[in-house]
Amino acid sequence: MFKLSIKEILFLSLSSFLTALAVRLFFIEYSLTPGGITGLSITLSSLLQLPIDLISLCISIPLLLISFFILGNKFVFKTIFVTVTIPLFLRIVPQIHLVNNILLAAILGGILVGASISIAIWNECATGGTDTIAYLIRHILKKIELSKIIFVIDMIIVLSSFLISKQIYTSIYSSISLIVIVITIHFLTKLRS
C-alpha cells in the first residue's frame, strides 16, 4: 500500500487548510461560488439545506473511484487525503467576518484556493474537486494546460450557480474569484517547474 511521507502530509494538510480558510473567511459570507466542488457545494447547500462538507464529500467520492482506474492509486491516495481533510478543516475553521468588501473577499479567497490547488498539483494529486476532472481530461488531451481545463470546468459551475441563484452580482464576483484562482495556479505551477 502507498504511504505518505511527513513532508507530503504537511503539504497536503496545508492545501486542505487553505481551501477551508477561503470558504469560511471569504466565500460563505458573500455566497461566492467560484467553481470547483466547493463552489458547487456552497450553491447546493443553500438549496438543499445540507452541510457543505457532506455535499463536497458525496460529489468527490465518485470522482475518486474513476480516478483510481485511470490515474492510479498513488494519485488517488493523495487526493483522498486532501478530500477527507478539507471537510475536517471546514468543521474546525470558524466562520469569521474579515472584510467588508465582496471584491476583496473574491480576490483573497481566490488566492487561497489557487495556492491550495497549486500545492496539490506540486504533490501530484488533486483537491478532490473539479481539478480531479481536469486531470482526467488532461489524461486524454495531454497538450492542454491543467489551469485552462480547470477554468473551463469551473466557469460552467459559476454559470450554473447563477442559473440556480439568479444572483448576477454574486456570479460576477464569483467569476472574478475564479480568474484569480486560475492566475494563481498558472503562476505558482510555472514558478515551480
Which keywords apply here?
193 residues; 0% strand; 8 helices; mainly alpha; single chain
Radius of gyration from the alpha-carbon trace, in angstroms = 15 Å
Largest sheet: none
Counted up, domains total 1
| Low-confidence runs of at least 5 consecutive residues | none
Question: Which band does the percent of strand residues land in?
Answer: under 5%
Q: Which structural class should the secondary elements be placed in?
A: mainly alpha
How is this structure best summarized?
This protein has one domain (7-192).
Would you write up a description of this structure?
With 193 residues, the chain is mainly alpha-helical. Helix content is 79%, strand content 0%. The chain contains eight helices and no strands. The chain is globular. The model has no long low-confidence stretch (mean pLDDT 88).
Give the helix/strand layout.
Blueprint: H1 6-27, H2 36-48, H3 52-71, H4 73-92, H5 102-122, H6 130-140, H7 146-165, H8 168-192
Helix pairs in contact: 1-4, 1-5, 2-3, 2-7, 3-4, 3-6, 5-8, 6-7, 7-8
